[in-house]
Specification:
binds magnesium ion, 6-stranded mixed β-sheet, alpha/beta, GTP-binding, Spo0b-associated Gtp-binding Protein, Chain: A, 17% helix, binds guanosine-5'-triphosphate, Rossmann fold
């Protein structure tokens, strides 16, 4: 035990304090059920109606006209969206979110109970748009809330309407209807690091190798149609979320292939990984195309911290291309083989350095 802890200390010492990626000891799930990541939903938020007021007159044993005693109705609940670390996507969000109505008022001046607010947790980084597509809320911090639909106010009972001129009012109010509004909610900051690359570059293979995620891998382009997420674990309990995004091709910005709309997921990533298949003859062209397509989506995106993953170095002749790639760019290039697992720990440390720098 003592020797193990010494060797652990020595390893940490040689790694100059950089957190080490952990290897998962648990086998991956054998379930064939694919888990889809839901990052966009249209919702209808229905606030609870207020409870109706009550008309009632109290009769006592000694006082037959003891006065109006109708209580007020309770307020309806609001529908509230709350940014929370506990959820990672929008799968659990129902398309109709309905808050409870307030209770009716009753006799003996009993007011109806206010309904509880219907609070729906959404991941941090959720953006709420109204029916016209205008962004009206950005839940970018833990605990931020957005009231999607206000509940109606409770109606007043007849006790409320007593006045000098009206001692026995036979009127009360109905509870107000809750708001009914439609929104689209969208998850923008899905991951800390986003993987960008051509189809077949090996993004999904790499995500499988560095995390417990199981995106489909196949030797044909556009295998990945929706983003997949994987978590990298480090020995200081830090976790980094990496997103495998669909492939980009030349003219993606003109809606070729799968287009560039999915790049909205990379908008809030703190770093980008360009995954490049170096077994191809001209990896520098691939890099230029990827950068160009990114710049077509947003000029700001291209300024993000970047790393180049030169994948498939196990294929003969690929290593020469790594040198060409390194000479042609200032971005750090890390040669790996996602399929065999070569050099992955160096890549994971480099990802951690990039993440720490831009936290
Ligand atoms: N030899 C070798 N083959 C690899 C390596 N990484 C991925 N591949 C192969 O490349 C093919 C495509 O891999 P994917 O991981 O599906 O590629 P992708 O970038 O996710 O492709 P899309 O989802 O279509 O965008 C598969 O047949 C993989 O087995 C590698 O390091 N070495
Ligand atoms: Mg893929």
């Amino acid at each position: 035990m003592f020797r193990r802890s010494i060797s652990f200390c020595i390893t940490r010492f040689y790694c100059q304090g950089i957190a080490q990626p952990l290897r998962s000891r648990k086998p991956k799930s054998q379930s064939v059920k694919a888990q889809h990541f839901i990052d966009f939903k249209r919702i209808k938020a229905l606030g609870g109606s207020g409870g109706d007021g009550c008309i009632s007159f109290l009769h006592l044993w000694s006082n037959e006209f003891a006065g109006p005693d109708g209580g007020d109705g309770g307020h309806g609940g609001h529908v509230v969206l709350k940014a929370s670390m506990d959820v990672k996507d929008l799968t659990h969000v129902l398309s109709i979110l309905k808050a409870e109505p307030g209770e009716r008022g009753s006799n003996k001046d009993c007011n109806g109970k206010n309904a509880d607010h219907f609070i729906v947790n959404v991941p941090i980084g959720t953006v709420v748009k109204n029916e016209r597509g205008k962004v009206i809320a950005d839940l970018s911090e833990e605990g931020l809330m957005f009231v999607a639909a206000r509940g109606g106010a409770g109606g007043k009972g007849n006790h409320f309407f007593i006045s000098d001129t009206m001692q026995a009012p036979e009127i009360c109010e109905y509870g107000a209807k809750g708001e009914q509004l439609e929104y689209s909610i969208e998850l923008r900051s899905m991951a800390h690091i986003g993987m960008i690359g051509f189809p077949n570059a090996g993004k999904s293979t790499l995500l499988r190798a560095i995390s417990r995620a199981r995106p489909k891998v196949a030797p044909y382009p556009f295998t990945t149609l929706k983003p997949h997420l994987g978590m990298i674990q480090y020995d200081d309990y830090e976790q980094i979320a990496v997103a495998d995004l669909p492939g980009l091709i030349p003219d993606s910005h003109k809606n070729k292939g799968l287009g560039i709309q999915f790049l909205k997921h990379a908008e809030r990533c703190s770093g980008l990984l360009f995954v490049i298949d170096v077994s191809n003859e001209n990896p520098c062209d691939h890099l230029d195309t990827l950068k160009y397509e990114l710049s077509q989506f947003s000029d700001e995106l291209i300024q993000r911290p970047q790393l180049i993953v030169a994948n498939k170095i196990d294929i003969p002749g690929a290593f020469d291309n790594v040198k060409i790639l390194k000479d042609s760019t200032d971005i750090p290039v890390i040669p790996v083989s996602a399929k065999i697992g070569t050099n992955l720990s160096e890549l994971l440390q480099e990802i951690r350095r990039m993440y720490d720098k831009n936290k």
